[in-house]
Amino acid sequence: MHWDSMTVDEFAEYRRGEGMKLAKTDGIWWAEVRPFFFxxxxxxxxxxxxSKRYPWKAFLGGFMHVAPSSTETGSWLNFHVYDDLQNxxxxxxxxxxxxxxxHCNKIFSIRPIADPDEFVxxxxxVYKIFYERTNYWYKNDRVLKENFTDWANNLYAFPKVSxxxxxxxxxxxxxxxxxxxxxxxFGDNLFxxxxxxxxxxxxxxxxTVREAAADTDAKYFFSGLPTGxxxxxxxxxKRGCKLLSLPAYCKINPVALYLAKxxxxxSYQKLLTVTAQEVPEVLPDYPTDAL
Length: 291
Description:
Blueprint: E1 5-6, H1 8-17, E2 22-25, E3 28-34, E4 37-40, E5 62-66, E6 75-82, H2 95-107, E7 108-112, H3 116-134, H4 145-156, E8 162-168, E9 171-181, E10 184-192, H5 194-198, H6 201-213, E11 220-224, H7 230-238, E12 242-252, H8 254-263, H9 265-275
Parallel strand pairs: 1-9, 4-5, 10-11
Antiparallel strand pairs: 2-3, 3-4, 5-12, 6-11, 6-12, 7-8, 8-9, 9-10
């Protein structure tokens, strides 16, 4: 597993190919993650409030971004990350986790999938199993093979995105994609079949990624924003993922905030979780949703 660093411009083209709405203002790429609500595409980008122009649509909804630590903002942005990457060792894991990994290393292997046709033919059945199990909402049009193929074509148009297959014996049982921007490695896509989950494939993948990241000079492996879903967030923390809270600036149109609270309750709760100064270890079980 290897990562060649992408530029933010390359990242923008990659996300545009997936259909994400973006705006570039004053040299900063912004992602419209909800209608009229924006975050920097590179979410760790530190911006002094009002030192850059914001997308005009953001004033109808809102925007948020990491701010310098010297700025008194009163807001926070929370990230799930693995840190201290270079000092990762299985010696730091519990005896139970080490036992699980010994089992995983005997039955699983991981290797790049270099050919897009092979990716579609082998990964699509795994994705269907994943979707039937989770009913995952994000980009669920990929459950149609032609849309899955279009997604794969965009994926393979960017060679700096790492595309790996996880194999149970000789059978593809899971797919992982990731990439690096500046000093952050991003976990991008992950889906697996039911049999591999029964054999703790997530523990195997986390271990494999952390071992590979230990050979880099990256600062973080970013595994996503808190979701507010107990099972998802707790699962990450049990595997050594930490909550990184950075000072942030957040500006939301009061009318938009009221409508979100009234009509988009899951997104509103996600916003509260992402921006909370202290995120509880036990979180309320809300449906998965992305801010």
